[in-house]
Design goal:
Glyoxylate binds at residues 129, 164, 241, 244. GO terms for molecular function: FMN binding; oxidoreductase activity. Keywords: Flavoprotein, FMN, Oxidoreductase. It is built from 12 helices and 12 strands. The protein is an alpha/beta fold. The longest helix is centred in the C-terminal third of the chain and has 32 residues, at 296-327. It is globular and about 60 Å long.
Length: 348
């Protein structure tokens, strides 16, 4: 029977992966408090639907940094897609193109950024860490710009790698299973930032070496969001790295409202971590996200059925979002407002 939601894909994907790979993809850091909090926080939010609204046509098209997309759902950056499928990121990029959206390619992709770009006509952004040195990092950014990538997404929550205990128990090293395709000629560790810790000066430096817009991924406080604006970023991803870095942080969706309020339209805001249903997406959009990023479910679709599986994951989420908007009396993305949401601490 064909999967009817992303949880069906999750169950099927587990059967298709070796346990060490499954643990790596699914696991979080330490006690996985944040990993589970991401889902629980979405579940605590309640919708306040409006009725007797004309929802005969639902509009989900939007733009991100000026690029039109079919739905406010983006393929988030996850490393090593060849862990679950031989075509790796090339298959994922093709699925994103078919779904009419953007893929953010991980800097630790298992196919090179040039191969991935050549495999699709769809728009791509590049996720970036600082690799070994600013020289190596700068060369990588310039490769991405030359290849046709449209934005740089700098991950800023990995000054050290979180303690991912399932990987430690399994002695997991990604390079044992898939190549670091972008750095075959460089001394680059698969552990990001082992040699170089980013600061706000890194963001300033990055702006001097590329004409591409810069997005910071991993912001959880309004204080850092305001600093990001001061340093000229084009966008922010509200993210706790899917619960894989500092354990015990607030969930991304809990952090979103105060960041939206602080930024006040100064840049685009996106969100990831814990999204599994169209209603999750609806809640994030109503609270001010322009689009959401999907992580682990992309692996599930890829493991089950390659590019068609990823495309189906995106279609399922899009269909659920469309249905949720209709049932909530919200025919357009522009109609979504925080009043649609009842938060646990909120009096109406």
């Amino acid at each position: 029977m064909e999967p009817i939601n992303v949880f069906d894909y999750e169950q099927l994907a587990q059967k298709r992966m070796p346990a060490v790979i499954w643990d790596h993809i699914q696991g979080g850091s330490e006690d996985e408090v944040t990993l589970h909090a991401n889902r629980q926080a979405f579940e605590r939010l309640r919708l306040r639907p409006r009725v007797l609204v004309d929802v005969s046509a639902i509009e989900t098209h939007t733009t991100v940094l000026g690029t039109p997309i079919h739905m406010p759902i983006i393929v988030g950056p996850t490393a090593g897609h060849m862990l679950v499928h031989p075509e790796g990121e090339c298959a994922t990029a093709q699925a994103a193109e078919q779904a009419g959206t953007i893929m953010i390619v991980s800097g630790f992709s298992s196919r090179s950024i040039e191969e991935i770009h050549a495999s699709t006509q769809g728009p791509l952004w590049l996720q970036l860490y600082s690799y070994h040195s600013l020289e190596v990092t700068g060369q990588f950014v310039q490769r991405a710009e030359a290849a046709g990538y449209q934005a740089i997404v700098l991950t800023v929550d990995t000054a050290h790698l979180g303690k991912r205990e399932q990987d430690i128990r399994n002695n997991f090293q990604r390079s044992r299973f898939v190549p670091l395709a972008n750095f075959v000629d460089n001394d680059v560790s698969e552990t990001p930032l082992r040699h170089l810790v980013d600061t706000w000066e890194t963001v300033d430096w990055l702006r001097t070496i590329t004409r591409l817009p810069i997005i910071l991924k991993g912001i959880l406080t309004p204080e850092d969001a305001l600093l990001a604006l001061q340093h000229g970023v084009a966008g922010i991803v509200v993210s706790n790295h899917g619960g894989r870095q500092l354990d015990g942080t607030i969930s991304s969706i809990e952090a979103l409202p105060e960041i939206v309020q602080a930024v006040n339209g100064g840049c685009e805001i996106y969100l990831d971590s814990g999204i599994r249903r169209g209603t999750d997406i609806l809640k994030a959009l109503a609270l001010g996200a322009r689009a959401v990023l999907i992580g682990r479910p992309i692996f599930w679709g890829l493991a089950v059925n390659g590019a068609p599986g990823v495309h189906h994951i995106l279609d399922l989420l899009h269909a659920e979002l469309t249905m949720s908007m209709a049932l909530a009396g919200q025919p357009t993305l522009s109609s979504l407002e925080p009043s649609l949401i009842k938060r646990p601490d909120q009096r109406m």
